[in-house]
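Journal club prep — side note

Before the paper discussion, L.F. wants everyone to see what a predicted structure for a comparable chain looks like in token form. Sequence:
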Amino acid sequence: MWRWAAPLALLAAGALAASIARAETVDPQAILATAFPQMRALRQATKPEIAALEARLDADERAGADRSCLRQAVTELRWRLGATSDTAAALRSRDRLRSLAASTTNPPGNTQDADGSYGPCVEAWFWKLDASTDRFLDDDPVPVAPRFLDRINDPARLDAYLRGLLVSDLRRDGVDRRKELNIAGADLVRLILRRRPATYPWRADLEPVVRRFIAAAQDPATGFFGERYREGDRDLPVMDLSVTFHMARYLDGAIDHWPELVDHLIAIKHEQYPHGWLDADGMTSHNNYDVATLFRLGWPKLRPEQRPLVAVELAGLVDWCLGTALGPDGTIRTRADGESWPDALYFTAAFLDEAGIFDPAKRYWTDRTFPDAERIRAGLARQAGKLPPDEPMARAALMRLATLRPSAPN
């Protein structure tokens, strides 16, 4: 099918990449570290402890243990250390994590707290929301009413909350809101537009608020979504791969500016996440899944000369996954920094599914064949099958591998 790249399109992509390289950039963690040196010192002192615990969690998860509680606590602590200036709250998170890690038992992933969230091991509201969303999207009953959602179940309160996530004044407030914009924005778009959980009384007048938020968050020049950072009297927009993926994915591609979005997406391939495709150590299946999904959603709306470029990029991502990220039997070899084992399984399976490795009908971008596809599918399914059966990411991975029937939209 597409096996060549149009020279004019390549020149245009190169020009766009050069313009991005000249654009202003913001390093939120560096700004916070300079403005709040106590948090920088605490982060450095805590890194070895987090690394040791994550290695333990990795081994436990590979053996099939439910470590969702500790993963929640580690994720919140990482966020507090890297994106906030509140050392007291970070120390509380660290101490809570130590207590949980020392305990012989932790709440399983299907445990709700008193307010109905599935985040009993975290303190921040948006992390409670994120721990709950995948379970709320399922059709299974929610035993404890999710009263914690009442906080934003009002148009004015929801509007104020979402608008408050769009701009970070790092030196004044000491908080980088990028992660909360990404997590809470994606979760609330899904829950409110899909009216989940089914038994929760979402107000009918929330959807226009969500739609306005989406429109306000998209940059028409690049098609991307992202945080804006206040520098003096200016707001500097920083385009974000993950936020863009979430908005496009959970709206089934019903966003604007697709040609501009794909131009920008290709131009940032060598930049580091969240501004580009790469983690500190290079490619990851997680980011590649985001990229592949954006390519698929945008394909019908692209200019003719863009499609060959997309095909070339997808071929490169597939070759990396099959040659580097996976062993011949589907064993995962590489993961994103801090990524849980269930997440690694899901994002690898999801990338391969998006690229059409398992299903020729999904190979809109190529006529290649993949003779090892079934062996890889079986290997990934075998690894996912070792995880607790109600673990949301394990279930989602098995659905992507077509070995489990979906029970709800994901």
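L.F.'s comment for the group: The chain has 17 helices and three strands. Keep this in mind when we get to the figures.
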